[in-house]
Amino acid sequence: MSLRKVAFRSLVSCLAALVLLSGAVLAQKKPKASSKSKASTAKSSKTASKSSRVSKKDSKASKQKATAKKDDKKSKNKRDKASAKRDRDDDRASSKKGSKADRKRESAERRRREAERRAAELAERRRREAAAREARERKLAFERGLRTETVANIAADNTDGEDLNVRRIAVNALGGHAGSVVVMEAQTGKVLTIVNQDWAVRSSIKPCSTIKLVTGVAGINEGIIDKTDGSIENVTTRRQLDDAVAYSDNGYFQRVGKILGNEKMIEYARDLGLGQPTGINLEGETAGRLAIGNNNARIYSHGDDFEVSTLQLAVMASAITNGGHRVLPRVPRTSVEKARFQPFYKANVDLPQTNVRRIIPGMMGAAEYGTARRGMDQDLGVAGKTGSCIDKGSWVGLFTSVAPIERPKYAIAVITRGQSERGRYAAGIAAQIYHALAGTITRTDRNLAQTEFHILPKNVAAAKKVVINDDDSDDSDSLDTMQTQPDGRNVIIVGNAERESAKPEKLVKRTGDSKPLFAPVIITPEEAAKQKRERLANPQ
Q: What gap in Å lies between CA 370 and CA 231, rounded to an integer?
């Protein structure tokens, strides 16, 4: 065996012995360590118990402290709440005191503002009342001025050569109206009277709807208005010529005028005597005015930019109805002229008389059922045209007419001015004059519309119920909506005219003298029963 192996075994043996020795030593020391640990464990348990008792005491103390703290907090909160409540109560009390004072101040301020408002309203009401009173006073003063001027002018009229009886009739008919009247012989031009010569001869005013006579004559002669039925060429309207004149339809004549044009209108106005003196033997006659260059549609219906005198209207109505003669009006001054008056014509209306006279049925309609119907004696054959509009600061009422229409003897023209004046009142003045002169009017053809113009008679009673433009005023001065058809024909869209529902006429009319033709037959119930039994017994 080698040396190396012996050494290795010795080393292993030593290590084994060393391990055994170490184990024995450890076994002897172990009980001592456990006793120490037991002692330490006991000591630690005592310490733990003591600390537990201390912690319990600390926990109880902390709880007591927390409870005390909470109690303090609660009491503090109570104190705070009580303090806040006292503060609120104090604030409320002070606010109540303040709000009461404020309310008093606000109430006083409201009363002050209300008093100021009422005072302002009262002042405004008084101001308006004063303004209205002043306006009424100005209006009354203006009206009084017109009447005063009329009375003064009438007093200053030169009545030499006039028919004083006719003058008295005309003055009485004019009454309290501010205006002028012309009564003239339509065939000769002999002036019977001119009331208020300053206004009738020397002053001019807007013709209003009387200008429609010029528009109508021009439209007929130019072929714009069909002579047969009175319709407008290629235009649909709610009325035809006759009713358009009678009811003074503004839209109808505006449409005619738009086709006619201003130049033609002025030409026909001159033909009928407007825009030039009539030639009467009185000084200072006015020529009036023509609406040259004015293309507004109102010149054809309302006469805007035209001015005429009362005498010019009388001459125009005569020229339309006496065969186309523009008479030279004259007042007979000498005894020879008075005894044998020689008529003179200043000019003739150089137009076909059938065209000129075609306007006459509408003038007849105005007096029968249209704008001049009130108070008009239908048996006298009056034909005329009314006009109403505002000019020179007031309303103007006009009426120009002749009678009897089949061969006019009188031409009467009336123009009135004032806030209440209208064409129907001017027509009423003329109606009184015609009524007073009725004994000198002789009718020769009471059916002129049928015999000359072949126009069927109208139901006048129904026509009076139709709503019409009584005032000829500016209220309906615009053209209705116009549309163009594909064929180029203009169609006017207008509202439907009011129509009267036709009531069937009774075939038998009872009168005060109506008596039964046969004696009455009385049948008793017994007789009726007997007749019934006989019919049942003997059926046929």
A: 19
Question: Do residues 324 and 347 touch, judged by C-beta distance below 8 A?
Answer: no
Cβ pair 154, 195 in contact under 8 A: yes
484: tokens are 């163009």
> What pairs with residue 397 in β-bridges?
388, 416
Pair of tokens at residue 487 = 């064929």
Pairing between strand 345-348 and 325-327?
antiparallel
Q: What is the per-residue pLDDT across 448-457, written as a single tens digit (0 to 9) for each?
A: 766 777 766 5
Task: Tell me the three state secondary structure of residue 473.
Answer: coil
Tell me the pLDDT tens digit for each residue of 239-289: 999 999 999 999 999 999 999 999 999 999 999 999 999 999 999 999 999
The answer to whether residue 364 scores a pLDDT higher than 70 is: yes
Alpha helices by DSSP H, 445-486:
448-451, 460-465
Q: How far apart are CA 491 and CA 495, in angstroms?
A: 13
E-assigned strand segments in 45-198: 178-185, 191-195
Contact present, 304 and 298 (Cβ < 8 Å):
yes
Whether the per-residue pLDDT at 31 is higher than 80: the answer is: no
User: The whole model's pTM is what?
Assistant: 0.67
Q: How far is the CA of 119 from the CAs of 97, 125, 134, in angstroms?
A: 33, 10, 22
Q: Which residues of 228-244 are buried (b: 16+ CB within 10 A; e: fewer)?
A: eebbbeebebbbbbbbb
Three-state DSSP at 141 gives helix
User: In a 3-state reduction of DSSP, which class is residue 452?
Assistant: coil
